[in-house]
Amino acid sequence: MLDAVFKALADPSRRKLLDELHANNGQTLSQLCELLDMTRQAVTKHLVVLEDANLVATVWRGREKLHFLNPVPLHEIYERWIVKYERDRLQALSDLKKGLEENQN
Amino acid sequence: MEKSTFVYVTYIRTTPEKLWAKLTETEIPREFFFATVLHAEWKVGGKWHSTAPDGTLVDGGEVLEIDPPKRLVLRWHHEMRPEHKAEGNSRATYELEQKEGMVKLTVIHEMDRGQSKFIAAVSNGWPTILSSLKSLLETGEALEDTRTW
Q: Is the pLDDT of residue A75 over 90?
């Protein structure tokens, strides 16, 4: 599952789509097409890749299919690849920053 | 009407029945939900609420739809933080769908108002809760972050 997520994230247009959904969640294909300088077919293809990777979830509202950013896989990457390797170091940096800021006051 | 909506989807290697049991488990601290305890009467119109380990009321509401082990819709009213409580009712929908040995869990949390601060706030909580629920069902252990309040 994470393979699909990393592959989906490897393309700048797909990252742009995720950023657009982050800014304004729940958009239709037409709305997303207006934001990207590419054909409707190309946007559809990118959305399929994002949906297969579970980075985008779709919900039907009447006759409209809305696209939502699904933050769950990104959170799993965070748990698997960031927390595991970086927590102690980030904590140390954060403590250092706090300590230095407190000394200044 | 203006709406604020967040959608979360996770695939969990389990059965709909086991996942449903976890989602509706009452009266014991939930390891995947910051040790909060759920109290509920599982029928349409039944009331539910959740409490922090010190007894503080966190969220509450009413069962709007229930169809085990497939669909649960809750009216959801936050009770703790004043700025979120002031926004009033939201709605949470859980959908469970069996897919090739996995269950696709969709959680939709929405409010009938634009730019809801509460919906923005839960958007940080749900991914953690759902990752932890997935870990709990697949490995028997919830994530560290969600085991305590």
A: no
Question: Tokens at residue B62, please?
Answer: 């009413």
Residue located via tokens 């000394």: A103
For chain A, which residues make up each domain, given as ranges? Answer: 1-70, 71-105
Note whether B128 contacts A: Cβ–Cβ < 8 A.
yes
Which of A6-10, B91-95, B123-127 shows the lowest mean pLDDT across its residues?
Answer: B123-127
Is the pLDDT assigned to residue B141 strictly greater than 90? yes
A72 touches chain B (CB under 8 A): yes
Window from A4-13, A18-27, A31-40, A79-88 with minimum mean pLDDT: A79-88
Number of domains in chain B: 1
pTM for this entry = 0.85
Mean pLDDT score, A65-73 = 93
Mutate to test the interface with B, among A51, A54, A72 (most CBs of B within 10 A): A72
CB proximity B21 to A under 8 Å: no
Q: Residue B102 maps to which CATH number?
A: 3.30.530.20
Q: Is residue B23 part of a domain?
A: yes
Give yes or no for a contact between B132 and A73, defined as CB atoms under 8 angstroms apart.
Answer: no
Q: How far is CA A6 from CA A60, A99, B116, B134, in A?
A: 27, 36, 31, 20
Q: Inspect the interface and report whether the beta carbons of B7 and A72 lie closer than 8 Å.
A: no
Check CB contact of A26 with chain B, cutoff 8 Å: yes
Closest-CA distance, A59 to chain B, in angstroms, reads 8
Task: Out of B9, B123, B127, name the one closest to residue A57 (CB).
Answer: B9
Candidates 3.40.50.150, 1.10.10.10, 3.40.50.1820, 3.30.565.10; correct CATH number of A1-70?
1.10.10.10
CA B37, CA B32: separation in Å to the nearest integer? Answer: 11
CB B43 within 8 A of CB B30: no
